[in-house]
Design brief:
Layout lengths: L21 H21 L14 H8 L8 H36 L3
């Protein structure tokens, strides 16, 4: 009679054995404000003054999550996806805001 084997879960690597993560977090931290500035520069809108600038909290929070050091390969991929999504959201936010404003203006203009 054979005994069933119990599958083991992979243990996280020792902190000294992990691949360095700091350059990736720094890269996303530099790219997010650059993407926000580039999005403002390429947008046809007047910018995002006042309360509209608060919507940049979401992309910057996604980038801030990249500073949590990953322990596994899956966490590493998630952190890369969060940082990438944050930078893309910061880049396209002014254009999305402008299109939303134009659509709302067209719907409320009336016949």
């Amino acid at each position: 009679m054979t005994t069933p084997t119990i599958p083991t879960t992979p243990t996280p690597a020792h902190p000294d054995e992990r691949r360095p993560w700091l350059p990736v977090a720094v890269m996303f931290t530099v790219l997010a404000p650059a993407a926000a500035w580039l999005g403002q520069a390429l947008s046809y809108g007047p910018g995002a003054p006042g309360p509209y600038a608060l919507f940049y909290i979401v992309p910057l929070a996604l980038v801030a999550a990249t500073w949590i050091p990953p322990r596994t390969g899956a966490q590493r991929r998630r952190r890369l996806a969060l940082g990438s999504a944050g930078c893309l959201m910061a880049l396209f936010y002014p254009n999305v805001l402008l299109v939303t404003w134009l659509v709302l203006w067209a719907l409320t203009a009336g016949p």
